[in-house]
Amino acid sequence: MAKQVEICGISLDLNEPVSKEFVPNCTEFMESALDQRNLKKLVAGVKKNYPVLLVGPTGSGKTSTIKWLAYKTNNSYRRLQLNGSTDIDNFVGRWTLNKEGTVWIDGILTDAMRKGHWLLLDEINMALPEILVIINSITDDDRILVLDEKGTEVVEPHPNFRLFASMNPTEDYSGTKELNTATRNRFIEIVVGYPSPDMEVGILEKHSGIDRELGKFYGKDSLKGGANCPKQDVTSGQGIVTFKPLLESMVEFANIIRANNEHQKMLGVCSTRQLIQWANLLDVLPIKNAAYVTILDKMSKEDLKIAVPELDKLFKNDTTLKDFESKQKEFEKIKQGILDKEDGAVLDVLDEPPSATTNTTEDSEADWSVESIEEAFQLLQKELNVSDFPVSNNNV
Ligand SMILES: Nc1ncnc2c1ncn2[C@@H]1O[C@H](COP(=O)(O)OP(=O)(O)OP(=O)(O)O)[C@@H](O)[C@H]1O
Ligand SMILES: [Mg+2]
Predict the structure, then answer these.
(1) Which of 12, 97, 173, 218 holds its CA 20 to 30 A away from the CA of 38?
(2) Considering only 23-32, 55-64, 122-131, which range has the smallest mean pLDDT?
(3) Ligand 1 lined by 206 (C-beta under 6 Å)
(4) Domains of the chain with CATH codes
């Protein structure tokens, strides 16, 4: 029996490819960007050999997800970007002349079907009608391809052959064609959204090599449990201030743009792809400058009226990545110094900030703790120019 790999509780055969030529290497990939429900749907489709169509916004991870699943299962992965000039010759095959005379060359579909590769048809809705007719025929119950150009040769799909397709939602992308119902009907359809913030931060971390903790100048729980944290006052430096890590702030910016787009307040978008470009530019350009190059420069004047203030709120100054990194080092040093002095007591407090309503005069321990934190902050504020860094909104 073939070795198996379990994904979302479904076991898939691990392929033993004859050649590794088209088997992707996705070591930089963490996991699929799909949520568990959609991933399960995709894996079930693969298991049962149903064609699967992913519909979602540009740069949301549709193509990468199929590539990742091929990698996980050791399958060969091929991709064809369909457009108005993809013809039967490219897709199915053609006769051509060479030294031996007239020979037949398989197109990508025929080759993938014979060899048992996975084939992803990107932007399937852009396909010409004659291509869609072929897709409809190979997704019919018998799954065969008849090569009319070669008499009537019948190509039976290899058991490992799988067909996938992707497209952007037609209602959101002007100029994209609707996919006809007959074709759409043959596929299992998965509607893909952007990855969750946590996952998107992970994607950025993998692609850019920037530590997801960079810029997180304060304790663990204070980032999560907003309700427990005293109000922050960044300007005066009073109370607990939590600095949001750089990557988290970038994802937050993207999600603000997406929410505005969804509520039709702006036309511009910010895809995972753009976020990756932004993060990858940070060793060359300061943060806001890089945001303009990758995201804001593509927006209309009207969109910028919303996007620019949001960017300015998250990033006060146009700091560089290097600055972030050196401040982080300084912070760690200072924190370590405080910890050494207080014998670890401050760390406990930072991990579990006292409630805003704590009556510190009645509780000597809380009183002591708050004082220690304030002390720590005063020191930090003095030593670091912390107002340059994004501040967590979670505990405001
Ligand atoms: N889970 C993930 N892990 C790592 N990188 C990811 C993940 N999902 C997406 N990406 C990255 O995000 C970028 C956009 O992904 P992808 O090309 O798959 O989007 P798409 O939905 O196919 O976009 P389009 O509709 O424009 O074709 C790529 O650089 C890809 O490597
Ligand atoms: Mg794609």
Answers:
(1) 173
(2) 23-32
(3) yes
(4) 4-191 (3.40.50.300), 198-388 (no CATH)
